[in-house]
Amino acid sequence: MEEFNILSLLIILAGAWLGGTSAKRLGYPPILGELVIGIILGPALLGLLETSEMISVLAEVGIILLMVYIGIEINFRDLGKASWPGLLAAIGGFIVPFGMGYYTIIFFGGTDLAALFVAIAVGVTSLATKSRILVDLKLLNTRIAYVLMAGALISDTLALVIFAGMLSFVDVGSIDTLGLVWVAGKAILFFAFTALSGYFLLPLLGRLLSENNIKNRTFHFTLILIIVFGFCELAELAGLHSILGAFMAGLFIRDGVFNRQISKEINDIFHDISIGFLAPIFFVSAGFHVTLEVFQTNLLMLITVVLVAMVGKIVGTALFYLPSGYGWREGVTVGTGMNGRGAVEIIIAGIGLEMGIISTEIFSILVFMAIFTTLSVPVFLTWTTNWLRKRGELIHQESRKGILILGANPLGLYLAGHIKDQEEITFVDSNRELVEEARQRGFESVHGNILKEETMETARAFEKGSFIALTGNNEINLLAAQLAHDAFFIPKNIVLFAPQDEGAGVEVLDRIKASSMFASKTELGPWIFKIKSGDYSEDTEEVKQVTTTRNWVKKHKSGKGKILPVLIIDPEGHKRPFHYHDEIQPEEKVLFLH
Amino acid sequence: MEEFNILSLLIILAGAWLGGTSAKRLGYPPILGELVIGIILGPALLGLLETSEMISVLAEVGIILLMVYIGIEINFRDLGKASWPGLLAAIGGFIVPFGMGYYTIIFFGGTDLAALFVAIAVGVTSLATKSRILVDLKLLNTRIAYVLMAGALISDTLALVIFAGMLSFVDVGSIDTLGLVWVAGKAILFFAFTALSGYFLLPLLGRLLSENNIKNRTFHFTLILIIVFGFCELAELAGLHSILGAFMAGLFIRDGVFNRQISKEINDIFHDISIGFLAPIFFVSAGFHVTLEVFQTNLLMLITVVLVAMVGKIVGTALFYLPSGYGWREGVTVGTGMNGRGAVEIIIAGIGLEMGIISTEIFSILVFMAIFTTLSVPVFLTWTTNWLRKRGELIHQESRKGILILGANPLGLYLAGHIKDQEEITFVDSNRELVEEARQRGFESVHGNILKEETMETARAFEKGSFIALTGNNEINLLAAQLAHDAFFIPKNIVLFAPQDEGAGVEVLDRIKASSMFASKTELGPWIFKIKSGDYSEDTEEVKQVTTTRNWVKKHKSGKGKILPVLIIDPEGHKRPFHYHDEIQPEEKVLFLH
Prior knowledge:
Helix content of chain A: 55-70%
Number of strands of chain A: 12
Strand order of the largest sheet of chain A: 3-2-1-4-5-6
Main location (chains A, B): membrane
Subcellular location (chains A, B): Membrane
Oligomer: homodimer
InterPro entries (chains A, B): Cation/H_exchanger_TM (IPR006153), Na+/solute_symporter_sf (IPR038770), NAD(P)-bd_dom_sf (IPR036291), RCK_N (IPR003148)
GO cellular component, one term (chains A, B): membrane
CATH architecture of the largest domain in chain A: Up-down Bundle
Mean pLDDT of chain A: 84
Low-confidence stretches of chain A: none
Shape of chain A: globular
Protein name (chains A, B): Kef-type K+ transport system, membrane component KefB
Structural class of chain A: alpha/beta
């Protein structure tokens, strides 16, 4: 264990954390900071650190666990719904730079294999900062966000499949047809076997565990690790790289295979070990292999590759996006959003370097390409979205659609009546009569206990974009929102809070990132009575300048208990529930009852 | 990365899991199975696997993370309360075998340093299966369990401090006094610095994070890892071993330093990465270094060391335990319970082997000593506890004392009235009048919202052994029990469930290992009314043969709603609440209202 050097591990971790956090502060993905820190600390600049056996081992485990996590994050249901435009963007954004990248390297005198590696690296897409940048640019509920997300999902899978196909033939050289069939056969066998056992054996195992009432998280975690490394070994036996096994394992771990609470906790563990511990070691040490000399010796190639990557990605995306009918401008915008390269690219480049297929120079160029393209995303995307916004071509669309409302009481029905034209609404209530009434009014309506997962599933909570809990019981509202957030990943949760001493406080909402309905503690009973008896009138008030919902409520404090702000209506007539974590923009109107 | 061998990692993990799970099934700690699997798979027997750089690196990270976890598990508050008898047992159980172990090795011609390593290894205590064996032998609420827990806590700390002291002088050889002072000074400086920064800087950091509203778990996790490796590096700078740094870091990570929810999740992550992933790699690979030849070449020494370990531990514990006044028989019982050796011993032996201080033979003997002593624990402890039980000398005592009751309503007060003589009772209620009434009856009583951590803290939930939630609101009862379990580690949670359609089902209790009060869904209102108006009578029924509370309720089904089983009274007159997860023993009586 002579090689085990705590100090270098400490420096790498602290450096990665510093670099990652700074990058995040600036709106970039942490990987960018980690690569840069690696270049600074490594032989390229300061020469403080260099690769060692210890770093390689930990980095290797890190990318395996990271690939599991990437696999877990790709949800098959999402892939199925990935939409036609997303598919077009992903394919176009891959093929065009792939082809251009390949011929660039051939032009510069590289080998076929090196050209293929670069081609894949150039073709890969990484959403630069996932939802972060979309939030910053206020794009989260636009069609572009939806296409970007779908495109990035498909892109990773596409890149890895092509990478697998290529790897199969790396050692082939000049063998006969039979040999070729064998090589291809092994790879296909790997995917078929892992997919089939993922589909059939894993759920069987999950059922076995739950039938035997085994709910030990650590037991599950170890078991899953064994499956992961088993798949990795299969991938290597099939002549592929272990990361493909890890990715396949990750793909099948989610989605109701294991007890949902345990699955969630295990996802968190994979997230934290990989992203919070071992994967940064890989990315920092990737920087160790970078040489700055390429800026002198290979500047032309560097510039060409970066340009090819950017132009190829944007033009390719826009071109293939045309059949969607959403116009070339939106295509260009999507292209600029997909222009980043990230973890998968660096991992593939690292494998190429390790296998001796690409040189240190090309590897360095690919790392700089990742850095430059990622840097370009927020800049370009800001330009293009502002351009679309000015032209009025920024189309709103939620990636998860529909609202799940708990409580088919008169207030819920009133709210639903207002927004039913723009969003699909599903009610859940434990009272049969209320459920029946909601059905008669044309709403999808589920009878059951919201705190049981079956009920949530029947109400297709997995597809919903928002959850609104409107019962008179604070704790049920809170528990339900917690379940919606933790187990069904509903991004937006709004909870009605009645003023009461006992019980959970509003501060509990923070943990699950939920917001409180009506932006203030509200007694349900009186309003239900008023709505039922028709003893209310509706009114709207336009807002002159940006204000938080909280301030709106404060301004109308004198009417407390007498007026109830229900909805915010934007200038286009789009309505959204009035809740705590929201801002009212100028020209938007608040619809309130009194 | 040529050394990175997925297959051997897979075999180790799968083997560790198999061995660990089998050992657990048989009532032994997983480490036993892991060591045995290592011996079987390694060079000693099958020769399937051997150590590699990859395995060493992962094992090293594994023990560092494991030491963090061991440190986290040792709670200062618990240490402070560790009681006089526990301290006596820990010291006696350490010093006597330590001395005997030292002279044994000297007798067999070993070096001074080797003798010291063996002495520590022989002196260490590991609770063979922590609470598992105590549960199996129904010892959980006896004084023995309390002493065992306290003793094991102190023992680890004691062993590591002495180990640190020893390490400081390993390289010393024959230097002058000034050198000696320097060596000792460095070690003391290390402990002083880490302890002081643990006490003062870490809480400051925690406050800084919470003031800036940083609640990102991964961010905290990475930061803690950096602190851990920082402490490890300091330990090495001080001439100590990195595990001491990891241990010191672990000691200070808990206890309200960081946001409690995040702390809990991070503890879980340390638990799962170490115990579920990396630490087993260390223990399996420890088996790789074992040679079976010792059974031929060093049989006498092997037998002597094992005997010295067992006899020294039991006699030493019993001897030093005498001043407690609890009798030598209880001392012997405690000694048999503390006779196991576990993770810390193997880690110290491994360090000795790695540093070249002990030979492969001595290392092997120490591994077998760990295996044999651990195997002996359940056997010996069953004997000794049965012996005590037959003599009527098994004294009951909870390690966490007192009951926290949510709901100072008449039913709660009635229950409390019965058990106030044997346990300290604290009420929490949000109703001021009820709180006042409970106070007038002489109970400690806290006014506040139970779902706020401050309220729990005011009620000293950290010290309580049980939590009983008796409000009429299922959800509040459940949320409160969840908080009591997750954030305040109250081991026993009993929740009143009213029959109701809506809301959380009893099955939710399982997740937090809570039990339901009265062992059936019970309407609170009618009973409160009956108790208030004095319209009830008490009765007891003796049970003839072992039965579960559930079956008792079923047998009295005809009286459903008419009778309410409140307490179980054992032959000694000790009363405990009647709840779902309990068995009624012969000669015990059920006290019920009707």
